[in-house]
C-alpha cells in the first residue's frame, strides 16, 4: 500500500509547505517510499518555498529517514508515522512507532555487522530526541538544511 499523506501543510492557499505527515503501513517497499517522501518534501521546500536546501542535506535526511524507519519496522508492531517539518534552518525528521522502549546506542565495535543505525543517526544529526508517547515513542532527528 502507498504511504498515506496526513497533512501536507497547505491548508491556506499559498501557504508554505513546511510540514508533511505520512503513515507507512506494513506492505511494500516502505524504506524506499520513506526516502522518496523525504527527498520530495525537501525538493518542494526548495522549489516552492524558496528555502536554501543543500544536496547534502537531502542525502543526510534520506539516510536518517532510512535508518529510523528501518529500526521502527524491525522493533515495533503496527504502522510507522513519518513527520517531516522545517524548523528554522533545519529539517526535523520524526518517526513514531508502537514500541515504547527507547533505542539504545551500542558501544562502538567495528567487527559488529549491522545494528549501527542509531550510531549513524547520532553522528549526522544536529540533535536527537526520544520521547515516550501514549502508544509508543517518537524519535526526532534535527538536520541542518545547509549541511
Q: Describe it for me?
A:
There is one protein chain. The chain is an alpha+beta fold. It has one domain: Histidine kinase-like ATPase, C-terminal domain (Heat Shock Protein 90), CATH 3.30.565.10. Helix content is 32%, strand content 29%. The protein is built from three helices and six strands, in the order ββααββαββ. It has helices spanning 30-47, 55-75, 117-124, and strands at 4-7, 19-24, 80-87, 90-97, 127-133, 136-144. It has a six-stranded antiparallel β-sheet with strand order 1-2-3-4-6-5, with helices on one face. A hairpin with a 2-residue loop joins strand 5 and strand 6 (136-144). Helix 2 (55-75) runs antiparallel to helix 3 (117-124). The longest helix has 21 residues, at 55-75. The chain is globular.
In terms of topology, how is this protein built?
Elements: E1 4-7, E2 19-24, H1 30-47, H2 55-75, E3 80-87, E4 90-97, H3 117-124, E5 127-133, E6 136-144
Antiparallel strand pairs: 1-2, 2-3, 3-4, 4-6, 5-6
Helix pairs in contact: 1-2, 2-3
Keywords: Kinase, Serine/threonine-protein kinase, Transferase
Domain Histidine kinase/HSP90-like ATPase: 33-142
Protein name: Regulator
Amino acid at each position: 500500500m502507498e504511504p498515506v499523506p496526513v497533512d501536507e501543510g497547505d491548508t491556506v492557499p499559498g501557504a508554505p509547505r513546511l510540514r508533511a505527515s505520512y503513515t507507512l503501513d506494513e506492505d511494500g517497499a516502505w524504506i524506499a517510499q520513506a526516502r522518496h517522501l523525504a527527498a520530495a518534501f525537501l525538493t518542494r521546500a526548495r522549489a516552492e518555498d524558496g528555502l536554501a536546501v543543500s544536496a547534502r542535506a537531502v542525502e543526510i535526511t534520506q539516510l536518517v529517514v532510512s535508518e529510523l524507519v528501518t529500526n521502527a519496522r524491525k522493533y515495533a508492531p503496527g504502522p510507522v508515522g513519518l513527520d517531516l517539518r522545517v524548523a528554522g534552518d533545519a529539517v526535523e525528521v520524526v518517526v513514531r512507532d508502537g514500541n515504547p522502549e527507547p533505542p539504545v546506542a551500542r558501544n562502538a565495535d567495528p567487527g559488529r555487522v549491522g545494528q549501527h543505525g542509531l550510531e549513524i543517526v547520532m553522528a549526522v544529526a544536529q540533535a536527537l530526541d526520544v520521547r515516550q508517547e501514549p502508544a509508543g515513542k517518537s524519535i526526532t532527528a534535527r538536520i541542518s538544511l545547509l549541511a
